[in-house]
Specification:
- By secondary structure, this protein is of the alpha/beta class.
- It has two domains: 3-183, Thiolase/Chalcone synthase (Peroxisomal Thiolase, Chain A, domain 1, 3-Layer(aba) Sandwich); 186-198 and 231-342, Thiolase/Chalcone synthase (Peroxisomal Thiolase, Chain A, domain 1, 3-Layer(aba) Sandwich), CATH 3.40.47.
- It has eleven helices and 14 strands.
- The protein has helices spanning 20-25, 33-40, 54-69, 93-100, 123-136, 162-165, 226-229, 235-257, 274-284, 295-298, 305-315; strands spanning 3-12, 17-19, 44-46, 78-82, 114-117, 142-149, 171-180, 185-193, 201-202, 232-233, 266-269, 291-292, 324-331, 335-342.
- Strands 1-7-6-4-5 form a five-stranded mixed beta sheet, with helices on both faces. A five-stranded mixed beta sheet has the order 8-14-13-11-12, with helices on both faces.
- α9 links the parallel β11 (266-269) and β12.
- It is globular, with a radius of gyration of 20 Å.
- The chain starts with a strand and ends with a strand.
- Bound molecules: acetyl coenzyme *A (ACO).
- The site of acetyl coenzyme *A has 23 residues, from α2, α6, α8, α9 and β13.
- Acetyl coenzyme *A is lined by residues 31, 35-36, 39-40, 121, 162-163, 166-167, 201, 235-236, 238-239, 242, 272-273, 275-276, 300, 330-331.
Length: 343
């Protein structure tokens, strides 16, 4: 059975920087830089311009990952795209990514499967686990895994929505999971979920149990009330569960691998809130040089946080071949996951 390793990484964030002061000055949100930094660590985030969507952000990140892996687009056997902000209700953005990458063009068109993953902040780890299994089973040699989000279009950028809208940003991160006979790659992964908390952090937009699913007027024009339209979150409950589940799932992969904290060279955590990651680092006893964060610059990009962090860490030289890497994420669902990778 081959091993599955990450052969290339890439990331893309839109060029428009939105600072905490911009939230107040441009969007009229009653907030301050100090409030946001003190509670979340976020200093700025990126917002995509109107007309740019999740498949497009995913395309730019994927092109980098493909190049870094030294493969051709045609070598991709499968696409897995994680997002809570897909371009449309359906179809998923994965098929659009395949088309954007040119996989459906010309005589040599290669109509690879495209799987969309709906596991929010844990979406990348759910996708990585799936890709690893696909590669180890021998089904595919190279799987493109992407986390991509265009949050800015669906944030309540007003004082009413400030608790949620101050947290999120747009961006995409990608990697290629490839087969190898070398003794390296994804060693363990673990995933979990607890649907009792499905409504603790959610953005409903519609309720399919209603007829019609979005109430409309006589002309069929849908009306979505603010409580359905925008994400809602019980922040403290999320915080409490995040630190418990991320710690638990890390311990799980540690024990599966027979390793301890000090065996890990680099920790790549989901970027939901700097305070969550600092709390985890204190609890587990992770020295600052082994933990990288970039939430200060990008906010929470949900499924894209870990692959962006991974690509940045590789480019800055913090993530090097031979390192043992631990990943953990937690998010809406609740869902969570962890992984150990020998880079
Ligand atoms: N600027 C200024 N004031 C604000 C803002 C803001 N951006 N947001 C909320 N407030 C106000 C509230 O309106 C409230 O005012 P009130 O007392 O007059 O009613 C006050 O600040 C306190 O609000 P809380 O929601 O209780 O603030 P809390 O201290 O819990 O901090 C936060 C909110 C930062 C979201 C915190 O709960 C948290 O970090 N939770 C973790 C959740 C998280 O990180 N989610 C990310 C997405 S999920 C994921 O990726 C795992």
């Amino acid at each position: 059975m081959p091993n599955a390793y990450i052969s290339g990484t890439g990331f893309y964030v839109p060029p428009r920087v939105v600072t905490n002061d911009d939230l107040r000055e441009q969007y009229g949100i009653d907030t301050t830089h100090e409030w946001i930094v003190e509670r979340t660590g976020i200093e700025e985030r990126r917002f995509a311009d109107e007309g740019v969507g999740t498949a497009e952000l995913a395309q730019y990140a994927s092109e980098q990952a493909i190049e870094a892996a030294g493969i051709a687009k045609d070598d991709i056997g499968m696409i897995i795209l994680a997002s809570l902000s897909p371009d449309y209700c359906f179809p998923g953005s994965g098929v659009m990514l395949g088309q954007r990458l040119g996989l459906c063009d010309g005589d040599g068109a290669k109509f690879v499967p495209a799987l969309d993953v709906r596991n929010q902040c844990s979406g990348f780890l759910y996708s990585l686990g799936t890709a690893t299994s696909m590669v180890k089973s021998g089904q595919y040699k190279h799987v493109l895994v992407v986390g991509s989000e265009t949050h800015s279009a669906a944030l309540d950028l007003s004082t009413r929505g400030r608790t949620v809208s101050a947290l999120f940003g747009d961006g995409a991160g990608a990697c290629i999971v490839s087969a190898t006979d070398e003794d390296r790659g994804v060693r363990s992964w673990y995933l979990g979920s607890d649907g009792r908390y499905a409504e603790t952090l959610c953005q409903k937009v519609w309720d399919i149990k209603q007829r019609p699913f979005i109430p409309g007027d006589a002309d069929g024009v849908g009306q979505v009330q603010p409580e359905m339209m925008w994400a809602k979150m019980e922040g403290r409950k999320v915080f409490k569960n995040a630190v418990i589940r991320m710690t638990e799932s890390l311990m799980r992969v540690f024990s599966e691998q027979g390793i301890v904290r000090d065996d890990v060279d680099l920790f790549l955590f989901h970027q939901a809130n700097l305070r969550i990651n600092q709390y985890l680092a204190d609890q587990i006893g992770i020295p600052p040089e082994k933990l990288v964060n970039n939430i200060m610059r990008y906010g929470n990009t949900t499924a894209a946080t870990i692959p962006i962090l991974m690509a940045e860490a590789e480019r800055s030289g913090k993530l090097k071949p031979g390192m043992k890497v631990a990943m953990a994420a937690f998010g809406s669902g609740f869902t969570w996951g962890s992984a150990i990778i020998d880079w």
